[in-house]
Specification:
Strand content: under 5%
Order of helices and strands: HHHHHHHHHH
Radius of gyration: 28 Å
Oligomer: single chain
Shape: elongated
Number of strands: 0
Distance between the termini: 46 Å
Largest sheet: none
């Protein structure tokens, strides 16, 4: 019984399985300011993309307006763009579109950064509150290195990496959506080709996402023993040197670091 209790004194590190649950995503969105604030950020990124496409469209209309073939095709009638407009008028429209794009970019980046900062502050406060209110048995079952891993690497990902990846994802998604809309509006029958391509992309994305999530989880799980052994080595430094076990500890550390590096390299690949 004593041996069994000793073996179960330190609990095995928990590792989730499967896809990222919607509850985790909703918890982060609520911490960032709520669902409406998140929707506002998405709309700002969409506005920024719309301004970019509007500026390009304005340049194309300006170029066509100055063409002799387009001028002959317009005739006497036409839209509000078909007039004898000077260069200053066209430049003013282009400047307005670019200015709106700059404002939308600034607003979207600031709102996303503020939301990420609010979520990071909220999650860090919850982490600190949970650690301070945890019973003593929790710290016996979870080594210090494991807690350091959660409070450093995982918190850094929430503070920096997640916000940056969200910004890149929103920009690419909005640009892709706008491109698809332009293509379908110009050549409507391309939607026959786009629908199966989107289905194939979503299926491939799910396969890739499952693999990437598992790699990240294994990277986090294999990183904790490195911190644990380092903390234990600092606590028992005099004992390790007294018994000449430095080589054994270095060998264990090397094996743990190699195991973690394998998953980090797999994630980067």
């Amino acid at each position: 019984l004593a041996t069994s209790a000793a073996r179960t004194l330190v609990a095995a590190e928990h590792r989730d399985k499967g896809q990222l649950s919607s509850a985790v995503v909703l918890a982060y969105l609520r911490a960032a300011g709520g669902l409406w604030a998140s929707l506002g950020v998405v709309l700002l990124f969409g506005t920024k993309t719309g301004c970019d496409y509007a500026a390009n469209w304005w340049l194309s209309v300006w170029s066509a307006h100055n063409g002799e073939a387009e001028a002959a095709a317009r005739g006497s009638g036409g839209s509000w763009l078909d007039g004898d407009h000077g260069t200053a008028w066209w430049l003013s429209g282009y400047l307005l579109a670019q200015l709106a794009g700059v404002c939308a970019t600034l607003a979207s980046q600031l709102s996303l950064a503020m939301g990420g900062l609010r979520a990071s502050r909220h999650l860090a406060a919850r982490l600190a509150s949970s650690l301070l209110s945890a019973p003593t048995s929790f710290f016996h079952a979870n080594p210090t290195g494991r807690l350091i891993n959660v409070a450093t690497k995982d918190q850094r990902d929430v503070d920096q990496v997640l916000v940056t990846n969200l910004a890149i994802t929103l920009m690419i998604s909005m640009s892709l959506l706008a491109t698809l809309c332009v293509v379908v509006a110009s050549i409507w029958w391309t939607i026959i080709l786009i629908v199966p391509l989107v289905a194939f992309f979503l299926r491939t994305r799910n396969i890739f996402q499952k693999s990437l999530i598992e790699i990240k989880r294994w990277g986090a799980v294999t990183r904790s023993p490195v911190y644990v052994l380092f903390a234990q080595s600092l606590d028992g430094l005099f004992t390790i040197r007294a018994y000449g076990a430095s080589g054994h500890v270095l060998g264990r550390m090397g094996a743990l670091v190699d195991a973690n590096v394998r998953w980090d390299l797999a994630e980067q690949a």
